[in-house]
Amino acid sequence: MPTLTKSATLDTLGLSVGDHLVRFHVEEQVISFEIAASVPPAVSPGAAGKRQPTGFVQKWGGTARKIDDSEDAWLAHINDKHLQ
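Given the sequence above, the corresponding structure tokens read:
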């Protein structure tokens, strides 16, 4: 297992960009570590290319109807939040 002094910085671990699970064992002046798992960063959808429109807004936009029911608090909440 690789070891470091307690005063060493995290850069000393030599980890690449991404998520890592690291197991540490701490002693008086020395820390030993083991990299249990490393996952490179995921590529965001915007970085891989532009997303194509799905047509959802053209198909469903403007089709919602406001229904009033003074006894239904959840329906009133939905109307206030989502309908104009």
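Helices lie at 45-48, 56-60, 73-82. Try to locate this feature in the token string yourself.
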